[in-house]
Amino acid sequence: MARQKKNTTSPPPAIMSSRPQNIGIKAVEIYFPSQCVDQAELEKFDGVSQGKYTIGLGQTKMSFCDDTEDLTSEYPIVDGHFSIKCYTEAVDACYKAYNKREGTLKALANGHANGHANGNGAEEASSKTPLDRFDYLAFHAPTCKLVAKSYARMLYNDYLANPSSPAFAEVPAELRDMDYTKSLSDKVVEKTFMGLTKKRFNERVQPSIEVPTMCGNMYSASVYGGLVSLLSNIDSASLQGKRIAIFSYGSGLASSLFSVKVAGSTEHISKALNLKERLAARRTVAPEVYDQMCELRKKAHLQKSYTPAGSPETIAKDTYYLTSVDDMFRRKYEVKA
Fold first, then answer.
1. Cα–Cα distance between 316 and 336 in angstroms, integer?
2. Domain that holds residue 188
3. Pairing with 99, which of 25, 150, 313, 334 sits 20 to 30 Å away (CA)?
């Protein structure tokens, strides 16, 4: 007769006393088309004023593809004026929320708020502001000029929170009480705070805009293109222990600002990305060729029973490319050998 097994009750698993540490990004990859057009040449071709793209948008080159690279949606409809306004409002809202949450966490850690909105009284007695907590920043980048304006906008928010800080000794007093809606497009606000952030922008944000500068707007991917740029431009040793702010934006629907702290080597990531070499290896074509490729994509839009006219020879090795669309809109792909 089998012996009856004694019923036992296992003790509940131990409750973790602290959150897991160093949970985050361990690897990152980026893809961009292997063809691009020089923006200075495109200015001439389009008949626009010199500097409209290169200075006004902060672009050097722009990646593009013909009808063999099936990776974009065509013809987005946007209202540029309102789109920029929504973006700026999102920067403001996210930055204020980040400051508030950080202040709350510091107050809980310290047992009191020390009477300061940001929980750090030392900042009020120095030229530093809450923005200086970030060693580097990566932004969603519709244009590189908008990134520069947004970094300046964060400092403007620091000013509104503490206008008596020594950091703002030269700021015109009338900016303190400016109507919020007016401030979104006010040129004095923009010029004042872009001037105050110029040096810090070059040190903390410029390293993160190489991909946006060299490829153009990547939409959802652009903020992580910024992170790729940063990891490729700042060596691993210099990044250790540094805090990186990341602002992600979704066309007015949603946005977020969070930060990550570098813990461990990033050398393997930058080596695998091989960003600078890959950017340099692209085929830079004349604006006329770019215009022709745009026409190819226009003809291919919503077509069935279609065979792409673009040459796979322009595509990088190991890249998927479109070979046909059948009469039921089913797409067939191959991999470039």
1. 7
2. 78-264
3. 25
